[in-house]
UniProtKB/TrEMBL annotation:
GO BP annotation list: SCF-dependent proteasomal ubiquitin-dependent protein catabolic process
Keywords: WD repeat
Biased amino acid composition, Basic and acidic residues: 19-30
Biased segments, Low complexity type: 336-347, 449-461
Pfam families: Beta-prop_pof12, F-box-like
Protein name: F-box domain-containing protein
Source lineage: Eukaryota, Fungi, Dikarya, Ascomycota, Pezizomycotina
Length: 600
């Protein structure tokens, strides 16, 4: 039987080698299979071709930083995961400082009148000082006004070389987007009391202030406490009063942070429902709280508001008295400030001079100092001295107090609400306390008010002879010069700009701020125009940048999952913030906690 014919392979390479094509070689379809599975030698050769040469391996870090300085923010973040070296270099603070300047500092500087017309308009170089970056950025959570030259130099020494500009850029970016992480820190538990215990509302009221990563809380049960917001740990704690002062409830709280940056010392003032107040000093490095002053002449009734800028303290009582005290030991002579229709001196007499010494009261204060000397008090606590006292006849809540420092004096401001023809108005009175040398304090006064805001009336389907008035007027006032912020019952805020000179004081017309979808329970604003507002049930928090672009939209804080939102049983009645965090006091069923929204 004849054999099968073999396929002829027409291969050019075979012809070149001199083969006749009739040898026993595999068919062409087997060659195709062999091509699909290259040999190990071919694979190794192909891998050598795909090796990428690292052109940056021979470059120094300084040269790479110079190259990366021409990249934008998105490119820096994109190349950061390439290698550990790239991650380290792209995180260099000097790379992010110009980006921080261009995005956050320069737009604010352009709003300064005449900035574009100066020498900077034709200059292509970035002219800035690292030590003044934070100041130029708006001070962030700084509540203080004027800072002395010596204290300012101490602050610059601390922040000049230690600023992480990438961290600052990420922080400002998160604020602008409302992105944050959320954590909850309990400050009061409900299991201390039985379900049938009769406890007044004031005893369960917790007052909070937030400044520079610290939260200060005060209540009648736990006393005065300081918390570290980063670590969520208690820093220090002290009782508010002696055992024989049972029943005294704190009603207002104020802090003075002018020494916090340089000396890590925070001054605290607490007012009580019987008209008393006291001051304490928190030493952060030693984690101690010591009593400074105690005012035990409570003759003006329950204190509603208090402001503190050592050595000056202002207090407002429910009876309508506004008192200004000095906590230094120098002799004080009070002067009569000018009076106005809203806030005047006591009828028929000048503002009260400092009360004469009372031997029985002095002995009691000495005993108090001896009793608390070992744990909370200094050796010789001094008594506050009254500079002036005003009495209001036509104002009504809400009311706000503030004290700010200027180059030549200290200004205590009173923001109040009063009824006007057909509506209500907001007034401000400045008490200018000048201290030239060692001469007695001189107190002068300036007053300004807004135009009356008409009160709307609610229409009824049934004809009634008298229209039903709608509760109107501000729910809360916040004043940090030059910004005066008021929250209204119609889910809006009103912003006023105050202008103060040595001889005059004026308030601009109000500007409505829209954005909230429910009632606003609290708000806070800084002297640089940064504000945070809180809805009544704590489910909506908004951030406002009001400097230079008052009509701009607000940013709603949107926590990262899996944080659960507030429910209907939650009560959010207070909000505070600093550079990196927003803190909300959250309460439910007798329990209270601080909800920390961390933007860092």
């Amino acid at each position: 039987m004849p054999g099968k014919r073999k396929l002829v392979s027409y291969d050019v390479d075979d012809d070149d080698d001199g083969h006749d094509g009739h040898d026993d070689k595999p068919p062409r379809h087997l060659d195709a299979v062999a091509v699909s599975k290259p040999s190990a030698h071919a694979q190794a050769k192909r891998r050598r071709r795909s090796v990428h040469l690292d052109n940056t391996a021979g470059l120094s870090d300084e040269l790479l930083i110079r190259i990366f300085s021409f990249l934008d923010e998105k490119t820096l973040l994109a190349i950061s995961p390439v290698s550990r070296r790239f991650h380290r270099i792209t995180s260099d603070s000097q790379l992010w400082r110009p980006h921080y300047y261009l995005r956050f500092i320069l737009p604010r500087a352009h709003r300064i009148p005449g900035f574009r017309a100066g020498a900077t308009r034709t200059s292509s170089k970035l002219r800035y000082s690292a030590g003044r970056f934070i100041w130029a950025d708006g001070g962030w959570g700084r509540r203080s006004g004027f800072v002395g030259a010596h204290q300012h130099q101490l602050q610059l020494q601390h922040q000049d070389e230690s600023v992480d500009w990438k961290k600052q850029y990420r922080l400002r970016h998160n604020w602008a987007r409302g992105r944050c992480a959320v954590d909850e820190m309990p400050v009061r538990q409900a299991d201390r009391l039985g379900p049938d215990a009769l406890v007044s509302v004031a005893e369960w009221q917790t007052l909070v202030k937030v400044v520079d990563g610290l939260a200060v809380t005060v209540d009648a049960t736990s006393g005065l406490r300081a918390w570290h917001l980063k670590t969520r740990r208690l820093v220090a704690q002290t009782p508010l009063s002696r055992p024989d002062d049972a029943g005294r409830q704190p009603t207002c709280l104020a802090v003075d942070d002018v020494l916090l940056t340089s000396l890590r010392v925070l001054d605290i003032a607490v007012g009580f429902d019987d008209g008393h107040f006291g001051t304490w000093r928190l030493d952060v490095p030693s984690a101690t709280i010591r009593l400074g002053h105690r005012h035990a002449t409570g003759c003006c009734g329950e204190l509603l508001a208090i402001a503190y800028a050592h050595p000056y303290l202002a207090a407002a009582s429910r009876r309508g008295f506004i008192s200004l005290f000095s906590l230094d030991a120098a002799p004080v002579a009070a002067a009569t400030p000018a009076s106005d229709a809203g806030t005047t001196s006591t009828p028929g007499q000048d503002p009260e001079p400092p009360p004469p010494p009372d031997p029985s009261r002095d002995d009691e204060d000495d005993d108090d100092g001896k009793q608390h000397k070992q744990d909370t008090a200094p050796a010789t606590p001094s008594r506050p001295r009254l500079l002036t006292r005003l009495q209001s006849h036509s104002t009504r809540p809400p009311l706000a107090l503030s004290i700010r420092r200027t180059a030549v004096s200290v200004v205590a401001s009173i923001a109040y609400t009063f009824d006007a023809l057909g509506g209500w108005s907001i007034g401000i009175q400045d008490l200018d306390v000048s201290t030239p040398g060692r001469s007695p304090h001189t107190v002068t006064s300036r007053v300004a008010s807004t135009l009356p805001t008409p009160t709307p009336t609610r229409s009824s389907p049934v004809p009634v002879p008298v229209p039903v008035p709608v509760p109107d007027g501000p729910i809360r006032l916040c004043y940090s010069h030059p910004y005066l912020l008021a929250t209204l019952p119609d889910n809006t805020l009103v912003l006023h700009l105050c202008t103060s000179t040595a001889t005059s004081l004026s308030i601009s017309p109000g500007l409505r701020l829209w954005g909230h979808t429910s009632g606003i329970s609290d708000a806070e604003i800084t002297p640089r125009g940064k504000a945070v507002s809180l809805a009544a049930h704590g489910h909506e928090i908004r951030v406002w940048e009001l400097e230079g672009r008052v009509g701009g939209p607000s940013v709603e804080i949107r926590p990262a999952p899996p944080w659960a939102a507030f429910d209907a049983r939650d009560r959010g009645g207070w909000v505070g913030f600093d550079d990196e965090m927003v803190v909300v006091l959250r309460g439910r069923d007798g329990r209270e906690s601080l909800v920390v929204y961390d933007f860092a």
